[in-house]
Design a protein that fits this description.
The protein is mainly alpha-helical. It has one helix at 16-32; strands at 2-3, 9-10.
Length: 45
């Protein structure tokens, strides 16, 4: 799944709450200019 700075999203990780959290983390990283990698075992709260 790719999230671009213009808000465009390509792909999916299956939908649901986890996908929404990943999108928010990606938008935050883009806004702050700080790269972040999120693995499937990471706990996002």
């Amino acid at each position: 799944m790719l999230v671009f700075s213009d808000g465009h999203i390509v792909g999916s990780i299956g939908g649901g709450a986890m996908e929404n959290q990943v999108i928010e983390e990606a938008r935050s990283a883009l806004k702050n200019g700080i790269p972040k990698s999120i693995g499937r075992d990471d706990k996002l709260v």
